[in-house]
Structure formats: C-alpha cells, structure tokens
Amino acid sequence: MLKHLSISNYALIQKLEMAPAPGLNMITGETGAGKSIMLGAVGLLLGNRADTKVLYDESKKCVIEGEFEIAAYGLSTFFEEEELDNEPTCIIRREIAPSGKSRAFVNDTPVRLEVLRQLGKSLMDIHSQHENLLLGAASYQLGLIDGFSQSQKEQADYKEAFKKFQADKKAFERLKADALELQKEADYNKFQLEEISALSLEKGEVERLEEEQSIMENAEEIKAKINEIFALFEDENYGALNHLSHAGQQLKDLGKYGKSFAQLEERFQSALIELRDIQETLYQEDQNVEVDFEKLETIREKLSKVYQLQKKHGLEHPDELIGIGEELADKVFQVDNLEENLRELEKDYSHSEKTLLEKGRVLTEKRTSVFEAFNKEILAILQQLGMENAQIQIRRKEVQPESSGMDAVEFYFSANKGVSPQPLGQVASGGEFSRLMFAIKHIMADKVALPTLIFDEIDTGVSGEIALQLVNMMKKISANHQVICISHLPQVAAKGDYHYFVYKDNSQEKTFSKVKLLKQEERLLEIAKMIAGANPPQSAIKSAKELLAG
What are the residues whose beta carbons fall under 8 Å from the beta carbon of 517, sequence distance 6 or more? Predict the structure, then answer.
C-alpha cells in the first residue's frame, strides 16, 4: 500500500505531497491540471526512463519518493536476492539531475532500473486505456489462471521438479559430451599418469633428495672440514674446548666476589654445554656421511626424471607434479567408469523427467479445472458493465516443460453477438479492453494480495449507469486493497472514501500544479462543478449532495 507520495520539481509540479489512505481514493481536476503528470511521476518510481525535459526548474534536481507498506506482498526472497534491507515499510526514491543523470534507491540502497521495475510490479498496478497491452501477453494470461486457481503449492512443487530435472539433464548431457573428449585423450592421459606414478613422488621429497645428493657428492670435503673442527676443539695445546674449560674455572672462582660474576659463569657454562653438543652432533654426522655410489645414482636418475616431467608440464615447483597426477588419475578413473557413470546419470535424468511430468500434469489439472468458473465470473461482471453479448474462451495447448509448466493458455474474446471469439489482441477496442481488464482485476482481488491499484479514467466512454456499476465494483475491491482512481465523472468521484483535487496555481510567474485533500464542503462544491461547470446552480449542488449521500 502506498502510504506517502512526494514529488518535487517534476513537469508542472513544484512540490506535491499526498498520503493516500486505505480504501478508495478519488482524484479529480480540470483537464491539464496535472493528473496525468502525477501518473508520470509515479511511473518513474516503477522504473520508467526519464529525461531532463521533466524538470520544472532545470537548475535543480527532480526527486520523487514513495513510501510503501509491503508486509503482505511476500517479497523477502526478492529483497534477499538483491541484497536490500527488508523492512515492513519500503521507501523508493528516484532522482533526476539537471545533467540528465538518473539514480534510483530502495531503502537508501542504489539499485538498477531493472530491479526497480521488478519491485514496482509488486507495489503498484497502473490501469489505463494505454496499459491494456499487458492483457494480451501469454505469460500474463497464464498468471491470471494460476492466481484464480490458487495453485501456489502445485506451482512450487512443479518448479522444484523442473529445477531438479534441469540439473540432472545438464549433468548427463555434459558428461555425455565430455565422454568423447575423455575417450580421445584416454591413452595419452594413461601414459602421462604412468610416468608420474612411476616416480612415487611425495611432497617435499625433491628437496630431501637434492640435499642427500649434495652430501654424497661432497662427502670427502664434508669429512675433512668436520675433522678440522675436531682438531680445533680438541688439540692438547691449542684446543678451544680446553682453553674454554680453563676460562670457565676462572669465572667460577670470580663468582664468590659477586652475584653478577656468578650469573656470567652460569651463562658461560650454558654456552659451553651447547658447544659440546655441537661437537657430539658433528661426530654423529661424520659417522653418517658415506658415499653409496649405487644409491647416489638412483637419486640422480629420479631427480632427472622429476626435472624432465616438471619442464614437460610447465610447472614452477616439482611438488605440483603430485596435483597433476591426481588430475590425470581422476580423468583415467572417469574413462574407466564412464559407462557406469553415464548409466547412473541417465537413470537420475529419466527419474526426474518422470517426476516433472507428474507434477506438470497435477498443475495442468489445477489450472484447467477453473477455466469454466473463471469464464463465468468474468462474463457476469462484463454484463454488469454493459457488455451483455461478450464471450470469452480459454484455450490451452500442451507445450514442452518449461519453468512455468507444460501449458500455454490464450484468451479468446468477442464483445459482439454473432462474432466468433478471437485472440484478445486482435478483437478488443480500447474501451472493451479496459472493462475486461477491470473485470479480471475485480475477480482477482479476492484471490491474491494485489498491489495498489491505480485506475486512470477507466470510466471514459461509459454511460452513467455503467459508471455506477464500475465504481461499486471498485468500492468492493477497495475493501481489501488500496485503490486510487482518476475520474472525470461526478457519480464515480462521489463514491470515494477520500477525494483529492488537482489544480493549477497561477499566483507566481510560472504556473505549477497542486493537490489537496478536500473537506466535505469542498468536495460537495467540486462534485457540483463536475456536474454543471464552474458556477454550479442549486440544482447541481442538490444532485451532488444526493450522489455523496448515496
């Protein structure tokens, strides 16, 4: 429901605000006062394109803002997908700068026009003789049947089955297509896998082998240097450890002279222990260093093969060969199990197709079961609206499963006696279309949570009695839905719960449009003017009172 509308610097509107109430809101005004301009501004909120020609003052930006109550519309999924704040009240703002740049916001988050259009469909429905092309669209007609049949559960079940069917079909067809390539590459992949598998390479193994190779190839030099270190450590006269042991004794003697000397002696002993540990480790290393020519040759051969394969596959690090091997193993496994995998996927695909067809038939039955009732209700309303000879048929054709189901429906219509029904777009005039669309919205009002309905001079070209029927139905719709009606007929305007008047203000250098909510006495005078002109006689005022009382 639209709670508040604010328009500034748009066409003839300098600043306009209105707060439509629940129920039936009437908007009247003289021709050219700005009623259609208001609709144009509302259209911008719904995602219509704009240009700078709409600016009242070309040096300032145009701002249009609408505040909507949306709790009943089930839009949480939409808001989640578009990453928008989902609150019970939604604020849409559209800005058009003098430069021509247009920006749109939903709850202060910038959005694309396409997002605004999708959201707008759920918030407002503008109905005029210029908006009736929608009724001829097959998707719209199918949506009407779904709404009338209350088939939400069947649609949800079908869509879930369709999603599963698509996923299974895609998986099967992808593997089927991949199978040809996999089979072509199978022999080469096996050869490459055998090359890598023969290495039995482990992560970090190359670094370890390179180190082992380096030690073996330089064993003599390593032993020589270790022995030289031993000599420096252990020589009777010049050995470092002997001298250091003597130094340690001196520090120990100094310890009795002060705490600081004792601490130094402790640190020295720790260092000496570390040096002796190094000496012991060097001894162990010396024992381990040996030249095993057979082992060395084995290491050289393995490293050579690793380097070759690393270069062949264009890898930065030899460990990457392990990952390549895993990928090749997976491909080889797929080929070896291809037939079995294809059979499994085909089985899943076949099962999901069967489920889809079953759910589709259930949805079809739900839809077709209401064709007769839908026709009957539409025709009853059309007869009340002066179309006694109207005929309507719903024709269904089975189609290949798609996201909306397995049905294509088309409405056939005839407004005249003796004329066979034809597809809607080919036979209905603007006025006939308008009344047909109104009849549809009337019967749908009890079925779904309709957005705010705006009827733009839907009463054009209808007689007084038909206009009364029209507004009474509108009144019925407004019991549960917000309705805004732009009218030029007094008998229609008088039925509104609230009456807004659009007028021109010529008090400044440039004319601009204003809107006001009429009080009871103002409303009486406006209805009288609609009956008899600018200076209504007492008889017109009396008629206006009767209309308002009725």
Answer: 18, 498, 499, 500
Angle at 315 between CA 310 and CA 316, to 5 degrees: 110
Of 430, 498, 442, which is closest to residue 470 (Cα–Cα)? 442
The yes-or-no verdict on residue 147 having pLDDT over 70 is: yes
Report helix, strand or coil for 64.
Answer: strand
The reported pLDDT for the residue numbered 131 is 52
Neighbouring C-beta atoms of residue 521, cutoff 10 Å: 8
Taking Cα atoms as reference points, which of 444, 530, 412 lies closest to residue 31? 530
Distances in whole angstroms, Cα of residue 322 to Cα of each of 189, 200, 213, 237: 15, 9, 22, 56
Whether the CB-CB separation of 438 and 127 falls below 8 Å is answered with: yes
Which residues, in sequence order, are CB contacts of 103 under 8 Å at separation 6+?
94, 95, 97, 110
CB contact burial 205-218 (16+ within 10 A = b; e otherwise): bbeebeeebebbee
Cα–Cα distance measured from residue 366 to residue 148, given in angstroms and rounded to the nearest whole number: 10
Tell me which residue of 467, 471, 451 sits closest to 42, measured CA to CA: 451
- The span from the CA of 444 to the CA of 450, in Å, is 8
C-beta neighbour count of 72 within 10 angstroms: 13
Q: How far apart are CA 455 and CA 42, in angstroms?
A: 13
Buried b (16+ CB within 10 A) or exposed e, 10-26: bbbbbebebebbbbbbb
**Nearest CA among 118, 47, 126 for reference residue 453:** 126
Sequence-ordered list of residues with C-beta below 8 angstroms from that of 126, at least 6 positions apart, any chain = 39, 42, 43, 46, 454, 456
Instruction: For 36-88, write each residue's pLDDT tens digit.
Output: 788 888 888 888 887 777 888 888 899 999 999 998 888 888 899 899 998 89
What is the tens place of the pLDDT at every residue in 340-357? 888 899 999 999 999 999
Angstrom distances, CA of residue 397 to CA of 364, 422, 423? 10, 16, 14
Which candidate, 536, 429, 458, 416, places its Cα nearest to that of 24?
Answer: 458
Pairing mode, if any, of strands 102-106 and 109-111? antiparallel
What single DSSP character describes residue 346? Answer: H
3-class secondary structure, 158 = helix
Q: Which pLDDT tens digit goes with each residue over 429-464?
A: 666 777 888 888 888 887 776 788 888 877 777 777
Which among 335, 330, 333, 321 is positioned nearest to 195, based on CA atoms? 321
SS (H, E, C) 176-221: HHHHHHHHHHHHHHHHHHHHHHCCCCCCCHHHHHHHHHHHHHCHHH
Q: What pLDDT band is residue 121 in, cutting at 50, 70 and 90?
A: confident
pLDDT at residue 429, as a whole number: 63
Q: Is 502 exposed, middle or buried (0-12, 13-18, 19+ CB in 10 A)?
A: buried
- As a dihedral over the C-alpha atoms of residue 81, residue 83, residue 88, residue 90, rounded to 10 degrees, the angle is -110
